[in-house]
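Regression report. Comparing outputs from two consecutive submissions.

Submission 1:
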Amino acid sequence: MSSLSRCLLQLEADLGQIEGWGVHLADVLMGGGRLLALGNGGSAALAQHLTSELVGRYLDERMPLSAISLHADSSTTTAIVNDYGPTEVFARQVRAHGRPGDVLLALSTSGRSPNLMTAVDAARDAGLLTWALTGAAPSPLSRACHDSLAVEAPATATVQEVHQVVVHLLCAAVDAVVLTAAVIPGR
């Protein structure tokens, strides 16, 4: 069995957690809160994929939801790195955009990136709920967050492939709540 197939089978045990994240995130977003998503490299691309699905749409037409991928504004990220250093690149944006009750999702295959750790600390200080998608556990990032989901895979590519599936499952869970609320008045 391939590593990816094995990891996807193991992901079945995490479906309840992902659905719970989706329900909570949908409630935050429908209540006017936002998602801040961040990562480095391929994980940044996955964070941006997630936010684009929430602001735009995943499968079905629905209201736009507030989600910001913190690496995507190149002028802001380069200014922060230049003026404050690389470990502050996301934390400063969390302090600017995060509000109590918002959700921060950090994606990292290693779970050890200093700039993500600093952002999680800033988010917790600001009253955000923090989640991590990581590679093998335990990791400093998974321990620093309120909740985490770890993918036990030997290769970075496999971790990112499974993270992509988690992103889509999370979007589907959010959409299920948002679309149900649009049909049932008073939810």
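Submission 2:
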Amino acid sequence: MTPTQLVALKEIAKDGSGVNSRLAEKLGISRQAVSGHLRRLKQQKLIYSKGRGPGVVYRLLPVMSKMHEFALKGLDEQRVWRETCAPVVASLPENVRDIWHYGVTEMVNNAIDHSCGSVVSVDVARNAVFTDVFVADDGEGIFQKIQRALDLYDPREAILELAKGKFTTDPDNHSGEGIFFSSKAFDAFDIRSGCLHFMHESGFLDFLLENPKNAAGTVVMMRIANDSKRTIKAVFDKYAVPDEYTFAKTVVPVRLAQHEGERLVSRSQAKRLTRRFEKFKTVILDFDGVEQIGQAFADEVFRVFQNAHPDTKLVPTSVTPDVKAMISRAKAARAEG
């Protein structure tokens, strides 16, 4: 594959419309030359197109795929890995294979140990740019199970607990790290369960969508570029205390505590946000997407919680001037107290 073809494939992966003009501008070549490259990619069965003329849309074609359904009773996640994902990613770089091994076995093990379902299906599709894996079970649903385990008022609060990390409904047998580290290892990591769809994409805001259809079970989607330079070791190291290798730092998207139509103003919202923060030495509070917070919310987080747990360092980031002012006010009150 030529460098130009690789650029074309990555552009199509981003957006399949307007490819000819975008590539001509990006590569500094004529649209006729672009058409020649796209035609060769179609001949290699790496892409296909729909429509004609200016409205043509290009899509990536899978070059390898596997799908299999397994009964959960007595299932070994290593068997699932060997029979589904391993053959599809075998020729990818070692660091990418390691991330896939970790993510697939963790998600399948979650289905085995936590879903209370009867079957799990694994769907793997690799194209010329990235690989997708879907792991779906027919169990209770991850958000509903966490809601029940923690006696939460709203299943949306379960997503906030997952985002923090170190949460499991079976602490005797699990560390609660699998979903947290998997979400950070992949370029995209989505969970769909019930009426909720949580999306995490590297370098972007986390999103929570509500679906009208109440879907059964849990579906996890993972995606990573085939040529990614990320390593699973680097992901673990990022959230560890130096020389201790313990999961001691977390990044919490504060906007997940802000349900649609709400502002973060109350102490009860702050208490939900800070639940289990004391399990970490450092909590990075990412305020991206949060325009304002109330005095009571800021006071509960940055004075009340911090006084009760001085060994946990709270680090706010991506703050607006209004949020920064409220945080400073709460910290000043703590210093005076």
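Expected: both submissions complete independently.
Actual: both completed, but the second showed a warning that disappeared on reload.
Relevant detail on submission 2: Residues 64-234 form a domain with the Heat Shock Protein 90 fold (CATH 3.30.565.10).
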